[in-house]
Write a structure and sequence with these properties.
Low-confidence stretches: none
Number of helices: 13
Mean pLDDT: 92
CATH architecture: 3-Layer(aba) Sandwich
Structural class: alpha/beta
CATH class: Alpha Beta
C-alpha cells in the first residue's frame, strides 16, 4: 500500500485534477484505491458526486470525533472509495491546533493493520495547515503539481522549503516528485518554467512525465468524470497513464 499526498501551496495548479486521475489510473489496474479529500472547497468530493449535507458525514468527524475512516467512506459511481470533505474542515486549525498527536492522526489511522486494502491518494488544501500537515506526515510520497507559470513555481518552492524545515522531525528526506501540468511546448513560459525547475529542484525529484494542456482534460471535472471515462483516447488520458507508470516503475506506487 502506498499513501500519496497531492499538494502545492498555490491553488489552480491541477492538484485536484491530478488526485482525481491518479485515483482513476489506479482503479483501472483492478485495484480499489482510497481517496481522501482534505480540501474544505470539496472539489474532489463534488466531482465524484459525494456531497455530505452534514459535517459529521465527512472526514471532519474523523478529526473532531475520531470516527473511523471506514465509517465516513463511500463507494463512488466510479468504484473509488472516497472519504469526502466538508466546508467545516476550514475550522480545524482553531479547534484542534497543531500538536504532534493532531498532525499524526491520519498517519496512525492509515497505517493501522488492515486499514485500507489499496493505495491512498489525498487531495490537500493549498495551505500549510493541520489538514495538509496530516497528509504530509501520513504520506509515503508527496506529489506536487506545478502548472507552467511562475506563481505555481513559487508555490512549489514554498513546499520545498517547508519540507526541508520538517526533515529534522521526519529524520529523513520525505520522498517527493514535482510534476509539470498544463504544459504547452509552444509557449515560452512553459520552457522557462522547465528550466527554472531544473535549477531549483533535484533532477531525480522532477517527473519525466508532463501533463500537457488539453481541452478534454480541463472539461472532465465539470461533467463529474475522470479523464479515462470522459475521453480515454485523449492526450490527458495518455499523460496520466504515463504518470502512473512512472510512479509505479520508481517503486513509489504499490
Amino acid at each position: 500500500m502506498s499513501i500519496i499526498a497531492v499538494f502545492n501551496q498555490k491553488g489552480g495548479v491541477g492538484k485536484t485534477t491530478t488526485a482525481l486521475n491518479l485515483l482513476a489510473a489506479i482503479g483501472q489496474r483492478k485495484q480499489r484505491p482510497l481517496g481522501i479529500d482534505l480540501d474544505p472547497q470539496c472539489h474532489l468530493s463534488h466531482i465524484f458526486g459525494v456531497q455530505p449535507k452534514a459535517a459529521d458525514e465527512s472526514v471532519y468527524s474523523f478529526f473532531v470525533r475520531q470516527r473511523p475512516l471506514d465509517e465516513v467512506a463511500q463507494v463512488t459511481a466510479s468504484g473509488v472509495i472516497l472519504c469526502p470533505a466538508h466546508l467545516e474542515l476550514a475550522k480545524l486549525d482553531t479547534l484542534l491546533g497543531k500538536g504532534v498527536n493532531v498532525v499524526t492522526r491520519l498517519r496512525q489511522a492509515l497505517r493501522a493493520p488492515g486499514a485500507t486494502p489499496g493505495p491512498v491518494v489525498i487531495d490537500c488544501c493549498p495551505l500549510l495547515n493541520v489538514l495538509s500537515l496530516n497528509a504530509i506526515f501520513a504520506a509515503d510520497l508527496l506529489l506536487v503539481p506545478v502548472s507552467a507559470d511562475f506563481l505555481s513555481l513559487q508555490g512549489a518552492e514554498q513546499v520545498e522549503r517547508a519540507l526541508n524545515a520538517l526533515e529534522p522531525v521526519f529524520k529523513q528526506r520525505l520522498p517527493r516528485r514535482y510534476v509539470l501540468t498544463r504544459y504547452d511546448m509552444r509557449r515560452r513560459m512553459s520552457g522557462a518554467v522547465v528550466e527554472r525547475m531544473a535549477q531549483i529542484l533535484r533532477p531525480d525529484e522532477i517527473c519525466v512525465t508532463r501533463i500537457r494542456e488539453n481541452v478534454k482534460l480541463a472539461e472532465s471535472p465539470s461533467v463529474g468524470l475522470d479523464i479515462f471515462r470522459h475521453a480515454p483516447g485523449s492526450r490527458g488520458a495518455r499523460d496520466y497513464a504515463e504518470l502512473y507508470e512512472e510512479l509505479l516503475g520508481a517503486g513509489l506506487l504499490q
